[in-house]
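Putative PTS system ascorbate-specific EIIA component
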Amino acid sequence: MLADFILQHKTFALKAQFATWQDAVKKSVDLLIGCGCAAPSYYEAILQSVRDFGPYFVIAPGIAMPHARPESGALKLGYSLVCLHEPIAFGHKTNDPVDILLCITAPDKQSLNEKAIIEVMTLFDNDDALQALRKAETEADLEKILKTAEAHT
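Predicted structure tokens:
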């Protein structure tokens, strides 16, 4: 489950500050590299995809879901959550600026489609949880938010 993974592996950063969207994405990927879910090439693959397709992973107002193809360095299913202190522009026409990044790694399309996307959309469909994430300051805050959101699925 998304909440358990993020909390157990400590793949989160709250009230984080970055100068650029690239730095914010790098942090989200570095958290997954640290727990063995991504290879360093995963970050470069995301950047290349943005060069090719634009900020495709800015999926809703204020929300980015950085990810790349499974063969681009995704080693196993994982999630990282980065909540920004100040929103950053990613260059998306309608959904900028972004203040919540949820990075996903999935080693194959089946796990991406059957597990990861469903869990992410469950969280992102919960407006109360999103607003609470924007205010979260501690791991205890994060745990309460994620567990509450998960219980409402």
